[in-house]
Amino acid sequence: MQRSSYGAQYAGPGGAVISLTTKPGTTAFHGGAYEFFRSQVLNANTYFNNLVGLPRAGLRYNDYGYELGGPVCIPHVTARRNTKTFFFFRQELLRLESPVYDNITNIPTAAQRQSMFSAPVCVAYNAKGQCTQSATSIQNIDPTAQAYLKDIIDQVPLPNNPNDPQGLIA
Question: Which residues, in sequence order, are bridge partners of residue 32?
Answer without folding.
Answer: 67
